């Protein structure tokens, strides 16, 4: 495997819950609670989980939209050095904002309606003093062409574009500074299926063309399967499983992964009603008051007494695989290919 | 047969021009069965559903067509044309919420934020039944228990914001089913929910459907959900049904190029894992439909899909709108490619 680009270890982001006139802190929402993973250069790491599992907070903590509460995010710079993005000052972090970019979910709220496409895509170039005047226009035109938009439209405002085109504008903006790592936060979730397919193809083409690395945050397991090389599953602020894509989907090790995979509706009417789905009882735990022991135990069908009291650590089980489950070795869980046999 | 939608046209008269959101839709909803309507945003699937209940707001209105509701009461069936009823009249209000009811995508915006769950549900019960407040409250508790809300008696005094997304959707379902309707219209009811909660809600709807022998008109853009629950499927594009048939025919013997393209452009779970296990270094490119859905004011002539269709016949598809071609046993598609075969 290629070299590491980002090493995240023990990253936490807790949001205080404040009450009353004095804004006393009465508790914490542990949105991200002790998450560790590595990102290798040139790969796509999928990050999946249900709403409230902390996947968006994690992405945002990495580029310091939020300041992490604890932990490290060691970024390997172009110059060959290593810098801890979680510890350096905000001013210092700005230097790396050209290397690490973000694409947001909702293209209509992440583009300023009062700026033209030229201004939106060109803004990072101006801010980082990389281009101005005619050169700026040329750079923006080139970027628009790369994402499949016509450069003639650069004087238009976002409202003149469809949802898919707006997402392309967001992608062009992310690419303007020639980044190395792009965090795609639900980048295709708001799009219609046909536009979603076009955008996924575009993202994959751009990865090849620019040698990009993606952290692909999404809740759609089929999309993540399609685009990712490795996948990490989160549950209530914790990482519960991490593995190369094919292994995670064909032979999951964590009961939550298994249940999540089984709940995805398949576009094949012949596969319905075979008792395929594992019923996940109840709802995702509240990150302000997580359950004791393993956070997943109240919904887990393989739960033992031990799971109720002792929280399983994320531990390595074989090459590039880690899982946070006491029973990972003894259970044999169903993957996505099993029911076809 | 429960509801027959015949050549329905619902248009929106905006300042910029007329948007033909629903442009000649024909659909049959059978008693006790699930009909799924799929399509991308702007294809008119929601407006079709709203038209059935006369809920289309200004500047839209039903221009022509009919929507025949076969009502069974006291051993006999009478037929009511819902499209002819006045949108605010007493006839439709008797049907709405009692015989035909609806659930929406975002329960937070369709439940009142300033009334408790108990009040909102008992209102429906009181409106359509001759019962006392106390009896109504009792009914509500039973309903909330039936849709799987834990401790229903305590939940009566909760406001919607105090419930989670899944619980709110359950409350909505309880609200819609309070009067045991014969048709439930569900407009993207699981789109805002996580997969595990989505699975719970789909199971719940199916259970209640069997129990009440109710028909479901399910509007969605998620083809996985369609495969999971549908008896019959209608694929819509730009205000028209382009393919209709039972779920197996539509998924296994897809005829319309748009329906085929739609099915081809979703990643199927397991596909890329299988490729990776066979040693493929990278996932194949996704199939994608070229171009994009045209602007509603610039509806193409002839078959609306022809500018994006890979099999379009020049001189025919771009001139004349294709007829609905019967492909056997209730399966039909609006496409010139199949017009020859049927003769």
Strand content of chain A: 15-25%
Our count of helices of chain A gives 10
What amount of the residues of chain B lies in strands? Answer: 15-25%
- Structural class of chain B, by secondary structure, is alpha/beta
Q: Count interface residues per chain for the largest interface.
A: A-B, 49 and 53 residues
Oligomer: heterodimer
- Low-pLDDT runs of chain B: none
CATH class of the largest domain in chain A: Alpha Beta
Tell me the CATH architecture of the largest domain in chain A: 3-Layer(aba) Sandwich
| CATH superfamily membership of the largest domain in chain A | P-loop containing nucleotide triphosphate hydrolases
Report mean pLDDT of chain A, rounded to a whole number. 90
Strand order of the largest sheet of chain A: 6-7-8-3-9-10-12-11
Outline the structure in words:
The complex is a heterodimer of chains A (341) and B (343). With 341 residues, chain A is an alpha/beta fold. Chain A has 2 domains: 4-99 and 179-340, P-loop containing nucleotide triphosphate hydrolases (Rossmann fold, 3-Layer(aba) Sandwich); 111-178, no CATH class. Chain A has 10 helices and 12 strands. In chain A, the strands form 2 sheets. An 8-stranded mixed β-sheet of chain A has the order 6-7-8-3-9-10-12-11, sandwiched between helices. In chain A, a hairpin with a 2-residue loop joins strand 9 (230-235) and strand 10. In chain A, helix 3 runs parallel beside helix 5 (163-175) and helix 5 packs parallel to helix 6. The mean pLDDT of chain A is 90. Chain B has 343 residues and is α/β, with parallel strands linked by helices. Among the domains of chain B are: 109-178, no CATH class; 258-342, no CATH class. In chain B, the strands form 2 sheets. In chain B, strands 6-7-8-3-9-10-12-11 form an 8-stranded mixed β-sheet, sandwiched between helices. Chain B has a 4-stranded antiparallel β-sheet with strand order 2-1-4-5. In chain B, a hairpin with a 2-residue loop joins strand 9 (232-237) and strand 10 (240-246). In chain B, helix 4 (117-128) packs across helix 5, helix 5 (133-146) crosses helix 7 and helix 7 packs parallel to helix 8. The two termini of chain B are 28 Å apart. At the A-B interface, helix 5, helix 6, helix 7, helix 8 and helix 9 of A face helix 7, helix 8, helix 9, helix 10 and helix 11 of B.
């Amino acid at each position: 495997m290629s070299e590491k680009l980002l090493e995240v270890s023990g990253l936490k982001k807790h949001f205080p819950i404040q009450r009353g006139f004095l804004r006393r802190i009465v508790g914490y929402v542990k949105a991200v609670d002790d998450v560790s993973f590595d990102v290798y250069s040139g790969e796509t790491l999928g990050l999946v989980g249900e709403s409230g599992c902390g996947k968006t907070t994690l992405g945002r903590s990495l580029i310091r939209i939020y300041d992490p509460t604890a932990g490290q995010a060691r970024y390997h710079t172009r110059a060959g050095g290593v810098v801890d993005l979680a510890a350096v000052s905000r001013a210092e972090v700005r230097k790396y904002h050209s290397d690490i970019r973000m694409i947001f979910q909702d293209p209509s709220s992440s583009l300023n309606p009062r700026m033209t496409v030229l201004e939106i895509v060109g803004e990072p170039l101006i801010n980082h003093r990389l281009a101005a005047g005619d050169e700026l226009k040329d750079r923006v035109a080139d970027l628009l062409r790369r994402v499949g938009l016509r450069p003639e439209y650069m004087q238009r405002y976002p409202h003149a574009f469809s949802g898919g085109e707006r997402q392309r504008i967001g992608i062009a903006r992310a690419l303007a500074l020639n980044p190395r790592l792009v965090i795609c936060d639900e980048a295709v979730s708001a799009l219609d299926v046909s536009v979603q397919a076009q955008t996924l193809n575009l993202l994959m083409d751009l990865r090849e063309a620019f040698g990009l690395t993606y952290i692909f945050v999404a809740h759609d397991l089929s999309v993540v399967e399609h685009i990712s090389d490795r996948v990490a599953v989160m549950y209530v602020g914790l990482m519960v499983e991490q593995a190369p894509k094919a292994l995670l989907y064909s032979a999951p090790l964590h009961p939550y992964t298994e249940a999540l995979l089984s709940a995805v509706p398949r576009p094949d009417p012949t596969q319905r009603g075979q008792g395929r789905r594992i019923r996940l009882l109840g709802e995702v735990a509240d990150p302000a008051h997580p359950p004791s022991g393993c956070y997943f135990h109240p919904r887990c069908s393989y739960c033992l007494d031990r799971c109720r009291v002792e929280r399983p650590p994320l531990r390595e089980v074989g090459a590039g695989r880690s899982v946070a489950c006491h029973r990972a070795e003894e259970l044999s869980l169903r993957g996505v290919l099993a029911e076809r046999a | 047969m429960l509801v027959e939608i015949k050549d329905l046209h619902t248009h929106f008269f905006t300042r910029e021009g007329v948007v033909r959101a629903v442009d000649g839709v024909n659909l049959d909803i059978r008693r006790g069965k699930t009909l799924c309507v799929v399509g991308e945003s702007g294809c008119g699937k929601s407006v079709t559903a709203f038209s059935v209940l006369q809920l289309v707001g200004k500047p839209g209105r039903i221009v022509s067509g009919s929507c025949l509701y076969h009502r069974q009461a006291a051993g006999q069936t009478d037929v009511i044309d819902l499209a002819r009823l006045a949108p605010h009249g007493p006839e439709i209000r008797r049907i709405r919420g009692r015989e035909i009811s609806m659930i929406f995508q975002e329960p937070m915006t369709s439940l009142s934020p300033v009334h408790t769950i108990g009040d909102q549900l008992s209102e429906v019960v009181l409106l359509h039944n001759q019962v006392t407040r106390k009896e109504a409250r009792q009914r509500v508790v039973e309903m909330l228990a039936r849709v799987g809300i834990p401790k229903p008696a305590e939940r009566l005094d909760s406001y919607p914001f105090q419930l989670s997304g899944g619980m709110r959707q359950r409350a909505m379902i309880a609200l819609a089913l309070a009067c045991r309707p014969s048709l439930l219209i569900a407009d993207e009811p699981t789109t805002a929910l996580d997969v595990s909660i989505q699975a719970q809600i789909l199971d719940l709807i199916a259970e209640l459907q069997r129990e009440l022998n109710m028909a479901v008109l399910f509007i969605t853009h998620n083809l996985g959900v369609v495969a999971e629950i549908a008896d019959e499927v209608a694929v819509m594009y730009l205000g028209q049904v382009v393919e209709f048939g039972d779920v197996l025919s539509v998924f296994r013997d897809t005829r319309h190029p748009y329906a085929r393209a739609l099915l081809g452009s979703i990643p199927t779970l397991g596909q890329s894992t299988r490729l990776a296990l066979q040693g493929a270094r990278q996932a194949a490119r996704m199939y994608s439909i070229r171009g994009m859905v045209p602007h509603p004011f610039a509806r193409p002539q002839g078959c609306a899909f022809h500018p994006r269709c890979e099999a379009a016949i020049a001189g025919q598809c771009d001139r004349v709108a294709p007829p609905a071609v019967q492909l056997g046993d209730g399966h039909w598609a609006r496409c010139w490619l199949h017009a020859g075969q049927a003769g």
